[in-house]
From TrEMBL:
This is Solute-binding protein family 5 domain-containing protein. Residues 100-426 form the Solute-binding protein family domain. One of its GO terms (molecular function) is peptide transmembrane transporter activity. Residues 1-21 are annotated as: Disordered. InterPro entries: Peptide/Ni-bd (IPR030678), SBP_5 (IPR039424), SBP_5_dom (IPR000914).
């Protein structure tokens, strides 16, 4: 039995499993089918071709949760971005293909390894009436970096930023503490607020909507800001409504109380599709995975055990039955196609029940108990994984923890050998988002206790040569692939279900709704 510290890739000699092969024609056909489904569904609703689009429409988006704060610098949840994207802008953004695009900054220039100058868009105003200038951007950076714990989440997102200064009213300079390969990606997460409204009940932004009503945790009422540089005529009033119960959310969509539903279970969304509604989904920059914690179960240090776990799962079945088809099977790597470092040459762990059973027997771990910890949100997919593991001779069951308990389990110290979770990298659209596999601080849970991977993680973040950085990220992927270090299951989609009156629901490169561009038909 080999321990993690003696994995062969540490000495440069990678191993491979006899039971692993690159996806064949059958899996390729599945991939083509999933791709075709995604391409036909990601553009919007299937409204009547003869229907006429209307201007000044009112639209309601229902979600299982909404932003915890109207202040974007204090918004903690990812669902809060649905709100902030409508009211605020950033220096740069991701276009629909996930590429960095101009927003409040129309140009940017790297002055040196730690300095970038951003030239601001002309004649932009906040909904308060104030003009956008470099001083306003500097004030936003300084507020987030002030050390106020309310802004800790956003401060973490722009962690390398040291300071910002005004070069001229039209040019702002951002300086990082070390070379940062993804500074532009980080800037997509810094929402710019009129500094005069930092402490206001309704902070002012430059986006296409402004807040006109708010009930904490329940609803946000927005109305078009006609003087926004990206305002359109299509939607005038937008409501973002929290409906935590999926059954109630589904009912609200059926009755017309909401026009767009986010957070419905896959089976419910599929049922609605048969009733005239449309499912709009797009790869979310997210991977469904199960971490293998050898510190808890020493048997997981044996590569045969890890390979058996990877070979036990029928990923095509998992996506179809558990995710409702809203995802892409993945048995090879963390990042999906379109992200820097994705490697289509990596082989995939394919479903091989006989080989998995053989490895379990060979390793002498029949009957090994492998409980899986997760949250209520992921109970069903975790149970599916447990079923696959039980079929090859393990004893696995799901332990559902409250989110408040699961976060320390995931980040600090686990009592369970397997952890089912979903690791997102859509926010930065980069491997750097997945810090769980990177270097760990004292007391943190090591998901991949391998020095080579952690060293590469630290190195790539400061590599400004994109070709060299891509090679490093691919080497990171190879390390995990060679040793079956993580159970990769699928790349999941963001799923929105829309009413027939919505003929187009455009999504940004980070899979968020661009409400100003929604097309409503009569």
């Amino acid at each position: 039995m080999r321990a993690f510290s003696s994995w062969p890739f540490l000495s440069g000699n990678a191993s491979s499993s006899d039971g692993r092969a690159r996806r064949g024609a059958r899996a390729g056909a599945v991939g083509v089918a999933v791709l075709a489904l995604t391409l036909t569904a990601c553009g919007g609703g299937d409204g009547d071709a003869d229907a006429k689009s209307v201007d000044d429409a009112s639209v309601t988006i229902g979600s299982t949760a909404i932003s915890n704060s109207l202040d974007p610098a204090a918004a903690l949840s990812s669902v809060g971005r649905t709100y902030t994207k409508q009211v605020f802008d950033q220096l740069v953004t991701f276009d629909e293909d996930g590429e960095i695009a101009a927003s409040l900054a129309t140009e940017w220039e790297r002055v040196d390894d730690t300095t970038v100058d951003f030239t601001l868009r002309k004649d932009v105003t906040f909904s308060s009436g104030a003009a956008l200038d470099a001083a306003a951007v500097v004030a936003n950076v300084e507020r987030v970096l002030s050390g106020d714990p309310a802004y800790a989440t956003v401060a973490g997102r722009i962690a390398t930023v040291k300071e910002a200064s005004e070069v001229s009213p039209e040019v702002v300079r951002v300086v990082t503490s070390t070379p940062d390969a993804i500074l532009l990606n980080r800037m997509t997460l810094l929402d710019i607020v009129d500094p005069a409204t930092f402490d206001a009940d309704r902070p002012a932004g430059t986006g296409p909507f402004q807040v006109t009503g708010y009930e904490a945790g329940t609803s946000i009422e927005l109305t078009r800001f006609d003087d926004s540089w990206r305002a359109t005529d299509s939607v005038k009033d937008l409501t973002i409504q929290a409906i935590p119960n999926p059954a109630t959310l589904s009912s609200a969509l059926r009755t017309g109380e909401v026009d767009v539903a986010y957070g419905l279970p896959a089976d419910v969304a599929t049922q609605l599709e048969g009733s005239g509604f449309t499912n709009v989904h797009k790869p979310a920059g997210s991977s469904a995975i199960t971490s293998l914690i050898a510190d808890v179960e020493p048997a997981l240090a044996d590569v045969r055990v890890r390979e058996a776990i990877n070979l036990a799962v029928n990923r095509e079945e998992f996506v179809d039955a558990v995710l409702g088809g809203f995802g892409t099977p993945n048995g090879s790597q963390l990042l999906q196609k379109g992200y820097l470092g994705y490697d289509d040459s990596l082989p995939s762990y394919e479903f091989d029940l006989d080989r998995a059973k053989s490895l379990v027997s060979e390793a002498g771990v029949e009957g090994l108990e492998l409980p899986i910890a997760t949250t209520a949100l992921f109970k069903a997919p975790a149970e599916a994984v447990a079923g696959y593991l039980n079929a090859i001779g393990f004893k696995s069951e799901v332990v559902v923890q409250d989110l408040s308990a699961f976060i320390p389990t995931l980040l600090m110290k686990s009592e369970y050998p397997l952890l089912y979770w979903q690791t997102d990298y859509y926010d930065l659209r980069d491997i750097t988002s997945v810090s769980r596999f990177g270097p760990t601080a004292p007391g943190q849970q090591a998901h991949i206790p391998v020095n080579e991977y952690q060293d590469l993680y630290a190195s790539q973040s400061g590599e400004l040569d994109e070709a060299k950085r891509e090679a490093q990220i691919k080497q990171m992927a190879k390390i995990l692939n060679d040793e079956a270090g993580v159970l990769f299951l699928a790349w999941t989609d963001n799923l929105y279900t829309v009413a027939p009156r919505i003929s187009d629901l455009p999504l940004s490169g980070d899979s968020l709704v661009r409400a100003e561009a929604i097309t409503v038909s009569e």
